[in-house]
Every structure is written in C-alpha cells, then in structure tokens.
Design a protein that fits this description.
The chain is an alpha/beta fold. It folds into two domains: 49 residues, no CATH class; 130 residues, Rossmann fold, CATH 3.40.50. The chain is built from four helices and 13 strands. A hairpin with a 2-residue loop joins strand 12 and strand 13. Helix 3 runs parallel beside helix 4. The chain is globular, with a radius of gyration of 17 Å. The chain starts with 9 loop residues before the first strand and ends in a 15-residue tail after the last strand. The structure holds zinc ion. The site of zinc ion has 8 residues, from loops.
Length: 218
C-alpha cells in the first residue's frame, strides 16, 4: 500500500472519525510491504502483510466475494467516466471492479487506485495499487476521494457508503446500477450527470452539509 494512504484509513471498529497510526516494518519506494496499523482509540492493531492492509474485524468469517463485473472496456470506462487522468488523485474500486485495477493504472499512471476487497487475492504489491481488506465497505475518512467506482447491483447500503467518501468536485461511477441505486445516489446529495443502461456518473457539486450537534447551553 501507498505510504500516504494511512492518512485516509480509519478504524473499522471505531468508525470514520478515528484515524490509524502506521508502524512500518518494511517500506520500498514509499510503499509499505509490512507493518501494523494501530487505532489509538480502541487499541486494536491491523496487519499490513505483502503490501495488503487487513482491516477486517473478523477475517475468519468473511464470506464469498461478490462476483466480478465484466465489461470488455471496463478499465477505459472507469478512467474516462471518473474524469481522473492527471494529478496525484485517489480512485477507489469496489470488489466487483477490482480485476480492472492493473489496466486502470496502465491507462492513468499518476493515479493511486485503492482496491477494497472482503477476501484476499493472490496479486503482488504493485506501483499505483493499494490493496485493503475490509468487511465494512470502505474504512476511510469521509469526503476525501476524488473518484469512487462501484458495481452495486441494487445494493442501497453500498451506494450510500460510497457516496459519503466522494470529495467536493469528485465523482461516483456506478456500473450494474439499478433504479434503487440511482435513487440512493440522489438521496446522498450527489448530482447525476450521466445515466445510461446500468452505468451512472454522479458528482458532488457542493460541500456536504454537516450536521453539528451542539452541546446543551447552561
Ligand atoms: Zn479503533
């Protein structure tokens, strides 16, 4: 995983408000191949092994991975629709799109692609791809990713979670999206800029409305 990704990862037990601290064992060219991610709040440690950050809460019970979403031009579509071609941007891919990561990085070498899966795969650490294992959809700081691409297939919860990670001006790209997913993305405050078949591009046009709970006045 990319060293600086640590700034975006959060504790899967404590939630999005709780960042993790990295203890490095091995690092090569700003990529961590071995170490620990620790939560200062709950004191749990999560391993980084072979470059993969394992943020699963219960690794032994993770079920079967969701089936890959197939499209001959998937990597090209992900790059084009996310609009991320230059600059050091982050693009998150969900498990169903993970197989396109290497081709995406080839098309857009400046990107850092974050691949979040529930079960390990056998790919090796590679420049431009940070692999994270998680049994929650995205253990990350909210409103910070310029691009998020998912294939929800009628998974309202996944859409709601993904939308929360899109920064202002950032995009959520969906493949295999149903009417339910489209409805959810609008509910999440993103503007749908294109929708054709099951492919949807939505953008966060303005800063999210953050509800601040005020303390009792004395
Ligand atoms: Zn924690």
């Amino acid at each position: 995983m990319f060293f600086e990704l640590t700034d975006l990862l959060t504790c899967p037990r404590c939630g999005p408000g709780f960042g993790l601290v990295l203890l490095v064992h091995e690092v090569e060219e700003r990529r961590v191949t071995s170490g620990w991610l620790g939560c200062p709040n709950c004191r749990n440690d999560f391993p980084v092994e072979n470059g993969v950050a394992d943020l699963r809460r219960e690794p032994e019970v993770s079920g079967a991975p969701r089936p890959a979403y197939e499209d001959e031009e998937l990597s090209l579509k992900i790059v084009a629709l996310s609009g991320l071609t230059d600059g050091r941007d982050y693009l998150l891919l969900d498990e169903r799109l993970a197989h396109a990561a290497a081709a995406v990085v080839e098309l857009a070498p400046e990107l850092e692609v974050i691949v979040v899966r529930t079960t390990p795969d056998d790919s090796a650490e590679q420049h431009g791809i940070s692999r994270v294992l998680s049994d929650t959809p995205f253990p990350m700081v909210e409103y910070r990713l310029q691009g998020v691409a998912i294939a929800p297939g009628g998974n309202r919860e996944l859409v709601a979670a993904a939308a929360r990670y899109v920064s202002t001006g950032g995009r959520l790209v969906m493949f295999d999206a149903t009417d339910v997913d489209l409805e959810e993305v609008e509910r999440a405050g993103l503007a749908v800029v294109a929708a054709e078949g099951g492919t949807v591009v939505a953008e966060r046009k303005s800063d999210p409305v953050v509800v601040v709970q005020l303390g009792k006045r004395s």
